[in-house]
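Subject: Sanity check before I submit

Could someone independently write out the structure tokens for this chain? I want to compare against mine line by line before I put it in a report. The sequence has 413 residues.
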Amino acid sequence: MIPGSAVYHVVEAMAPLYTAAVLGYASVRWLKAFSDEQCAGINHFVALYAVPVLIFHMVSTNNPYAMNGRLVAADTLQKAVILLALTAWALLSRCRRRRGGGGGKKEAAAAATTLKWVVTSFSVASLPNTIIMGVPLLDGMYGAVSGGLMKQIVVMQFCIWYNVVIFLYEFMAARDGSTKISPESAVAAADGDGDIVAAAEQSRPEVAVNIEITEVAAPATSSTEDAKEVDSAIGAMAAVSRPPLPAQQVPSVMHVVLMAGKKLLKIPNTYASFIGLIWSLIAYKVGIKMPKIVDDSLFIIYTTAVGLSMFASGTFIARQSRFVPCGYTIASLSMVLKFLIGPVVMLLASLAIGMHGTLLHIAVVQAALPLAVTSFVYAEEYKVHADIMSTWVVLGIFISLPVTIVYYILLGL
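---
Independent answer below. Compare away.
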């Protein structure tokens, strides 16, 4: 059985997470300390700076030459099987809708909804919180060797699977035309509006002169009619000054894929994961270390990632009308995905790879850990089922402890 000291270490790891989440909840629900825009700004900082620096730190400090090949293969196989199964479900649903003869707009909306569920279900089932919850819990179960194995799984998640998730988010945004506004696009939009306003401003002096001449020449009884004519003339001039909107065209799938791929290459996570991988390949081969001034500068940023992520999760829940934003039905289905389907697929994948003994047990138990906090950060950033992610980041930490103990006992039989 698990010693009491190990359970206490897990509680030690859980308490700071809930402290940050409760503080975020109280700051919005009761203290009214943050507006919606400020909450979005906190989450944007985490997604844009804190998490990428954390990714670089985790990847750059992992020895790629000492990774366990079987564990990496089993973890990759589990995630690939889940993603392919969800993709097959999405394609099957699309075929059924086409046979049903649904309209174009309805079919596009249904396809977008289905893809959102693919990304959300994949994240819930296969992206666990291996570092914060996994290391202290599995250390108590299987010893210190599990800590290094958990880090290897995290590195694979950061280098491959989070980039896959972000690509799917960007694919949906590019297809729907709802790509997040960048500073450049905002400036361009402002310049475009400014040109229209300037044209209207330039036309106003001439209109004002005409108004004055008309008021002098016309009798007092016709001033109201003249004013109405002037107003209609201004409206017509404004309409003429605006360029006609181009006809909206539906982009091809390949065009959307290219757009999403280009956007992915500009996201800090992509740079962080691959630069960290390049550094680790060189550093562990040659035997060099990160300069202390650089290491300390990164430390200041990446230590804020987890705390602010939980804080942002608390602020999100506080802005909802109920404590379980996604509803109890969706929460129950997510529980099946997280604590049953994910570990079972990992068990089958590990057996297929040829794993056994303690390594097999570690692989299965870590698959039953709660949802990674990073998954909520990206779901909130892209506005895709953030209610489900926040629910399972917060509630999953409580539920995962007894569930992982049950798996530990069953695997030890």
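---
OP: Matches mine. For the report I'm noting this point. Confidence is low (pLDDT under 50) at residues 181-224.
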